[in-house]
Amino acid sequence: MVQPSCTPDLDGLLPxxxxxxxxxxxxxxxxxxxxxxxxAALGRVLAEPVVSTIDVPAWDYSAxxxxxxxAADCTQAGTELPVSQRLPAxxxxxxxxxxxxxxxxTGAPIxxxxxxxxxxxxxxxxxxxxRIGPSIEPDSNIRRRGEDIxxxxxxxxxxxxxxxxxxGLAASVGVPTLSVRRRPRVxxxxxxxxxxxxxxxxxxxxxxxxxxxxxxGLLQALGCEVVELGIVGDxxxxxxxxxxxxxxxxxxxxASGGVSVGEEDHVKPAVEALGSLDxxxxxxxxxxxxxxxxxxxxxxxxxxxxxxxxxxxFVLFVRPFLLRMLGRTxxxxxxxxxxxxxxxxxxxxxxxFQRARLAYDSAGDPWVEVHPSRSSGVLSSVTWANGLVIIPxxxxxxxxxSVSFIPFSxxxx
Length: 413
Fold this sequence. Notes:
The chain is of the alpha/beta class. It is built from seven helices and 26 strands.
């Protein structure tokens, strides 16, 4: 693996790891938080840890339907005991009289004096008594107080992206509201005189603005609030105006298109005129021209306009930047080791992140198939794929070689 470096390589391109490191280091976590009810907190990032004030369970309870007994009263098979009380879940039991049993149901508190529960399947009710089958050991079929959680323990760490199970866990310790980080506001625009919105008539030389919807979806999946600035014309003045507007109302400005060096590409000079451009070209394919800088003190990231390049550069660079802003503490991404189901005889000098599909053969071994098109304009390839295969710089591959695969499930939330 290429070691992180902040030094451009011989072609003037920044290595992938160095680019990610530079972006993440520049991201400033959002410190503002808000209190939300559990029902409204799904997908948000926890700002303060959840600490339990109670034991869970809060008392010893029965793990099944049966009879609560003293194990010492049931040392012989066929022992008959009088049934002194009936205990459904939620009952407040009386102490168990010696030499008696309590009819008990799953989740009900264990009465004082009982030290075991005999499952009902091995018991035989006889009038007001019960005949116990085999002998029983102390502690059988009892869930003890604090077995799951002890009072004073941290149950959910700050930085956790809240999933349904986290909300259930918070509820289980009696917490009604959670402190979560404010959503990042991201100002979004797409550059290009050729762009139209879906539903408009498609004239000569025009294309529909798919990038707006791809980027909006990617941002919303991460929990961002999107400030849509629309389509920006291919002029320096229009680009500067959009950058200023975005910087004034957002935590990050994200743009697609206009980041190269053509006569109609105005993002780079506009950012340099209004602030600073701290990073530009990266040694990857697709997505070499990724711009990073600041406009009036607000971070800016610009991606290429080709739809696949936008998608790939977002998940590789914009996502980790936003995770840092959100204060998320996700574990490091772990690619899946698999075998190449393709030949790659003509490698690039840059590291490639190609659209690919992971599948398993009859023996359960993972294999990766790569999309036949390397074009960054074939957006359908991203819906065909279920992840990205990493092809190292200058490395040819043959069918059966070991490869690393990053599933979209690791990249899209």
